Amino acid sequence: MHEELIAQLEAWHEEDEFEKIVDAIMEVPTEERDYTLVSHLGRALNNLERYDEAVDQFLTVAEEGQEDPLWHYRIGLAYYYLERYEEALGAFESADRLDPGDEDTQEFLGWIRDKLAEGASAGEPGEEPGGEPDGSGSQERRFSEEARAAAGRPDAADIDTTGFWDDSAEALEKYVSEPPTDELVSSVEEELVFRLPAFYVEMMKQHNGGVPRQRFFPVDPTESGAGRDAIEISGILGIGRTKKHSLCGEAGSRTLIEQGGYPEIGVVICDCPSAYEVVMLDYRESGNDREPEVVHVDKKEDNRITRLAPDFESFIRGLKEERTM
Question: Residue 43 — φ and ψ, nearest 5°?
Fold first, then answer.
């Protein structure tokens, strides 16, 4: 086993140095590459969007990977982005059989089945769907595994900003700032002590904070408290300091946490009509290395935390214009 090399590969993976991973493994003679090395190589190729090459590598260890849910997950991801949906479906179904209930796997299965249904009914692919349990494989998958933002996940460019935002005079006054520079993003992140989700940053560069037309996020009434079927937000805090409802503004994240008594779990990203509720980015499990979850916090319920979405993109794409009931 190439123990020193494996340790270096893991370090490079954490640093998003995927080219270095590929170069280092390719220097190892083919006959000396074991299952672990090939798995690292395929994962790095996925992260570099070189999906055809990733599939080729995964297939060289197909026999060894048959009982490994991560092998099926990774080759399924490559098939998905190659739009080989039937093969992707088979791979993710195998991953689900070996690791039942994994949230990432379930999400991809939903996307793939939607793609196949759209193809059968319309003869062409539809829009990219939005939006991710724990365990040895799941933690790796949630954000850094295949680094979806770098591996072909849809970005904020396909959000219809003209139809998404309700730019009333009040919204423009309280929420909306000029698009943030990279320097401002970095300084706000430093002040908050958290790295902001890439999708959120990209979205704010198009429209920096504001009031969306779709302000209801559906929830399970048995989990939300008070039997609610949806959480309503007032607006999305932008990146900045000058507007009252921006991350570092007068009614921003640090103020709400320090003076409002909300838990120190991350960043307040949306305020709510009730002064006792907010929506937050929850970094307790992800740290700054992976995508934070999006949660609702209800101060009237002893800071009851209700999980809304596995990441900010899923949250945005899940917002509805009206309550579901």
Answer: -60, -45
Output the CA torsion 62→65→70→72 (10° steps).
Answer: 40
Nearest to 73 by CA among 112, 114, 30: 112
Nearest to 188, CA basis, from 235, 257, 239: 239
* Domains of the chain, earliest start first: 3-141 (1.25.40.10), 157-318 (3.40.1580.10)
Q: For residue 163, what are its two tokens?
A: 């139809």
How many Cα atoms within 13 Å fall on the side-chain side of residue 76? 27
Residue 28 or residue 226, greater confidence? 28
What whole-number distance in Å separates Cα of residue 278 and Cα of residue 297? 6
Q: What pLDDT score was predicted for residue 144?
A: 35
What is the SS3 assignment for 56-73? Answer: HHHHHCHHHHCCCHHHHH
Nearest-angstrom CA–CA distance, 217 and 140: 27
Can you tell me the distance from the alpha carbon of 54 to that of 150, in angstroms, rounded to the nearest whole number?
Answer: 15
pLDDT band of 147, cuts 50, 70, 90: very low
State the pLDDT at residue 103: 84
- For the cut 70, the answer to whether the pLDDT of residue 110 exceeds it is yes
Inter-CA distances, 45 with 39, 56, 212, Å: 10, 10, 37
76 neighbors 95 (Cβ within 8 angstroms): yes
Mean pLDDT of the chain: 84
Question: What single-letter amino acid sits at 160?
Answer: D
CA separation for the pair 319, 240 (Å, rounded): 23
pLDDT of residue 157: 52
Section 262-283 average pLDDT = 95
Q: Residue 99's CB: how many other CB atoms inside 10 A?
A: 21
